[in-house]
Amino acid sequence: MPCELVCPANAISLVEGKSTGLHHYGLRAPEGFMGGVITERCYGCGRCFPVCPYDKIRVSTYRRDASTTAELLKRNDVDAIEIHTNGRQVSSFTELWTVLGDSLGHLKLVAVSLPDVGESTTALMSAMFSIMKSDLQGYNLWQLDGRPMSGDIGRGATRDAVAFAVRLSKAKDRPPGFLQLAGGTNAQTVHYLKKEGLFQATSTANILNDQNMAGKAPSSWNSSIGGVAYGGYARKIVGRILRSMQSQFGLACIEDYPEFLREALIEALGLVGTVKCYDASFIQQK
Question: How far is CA 118 from the centre of its chain?
Answer without folding.
Answer: 21
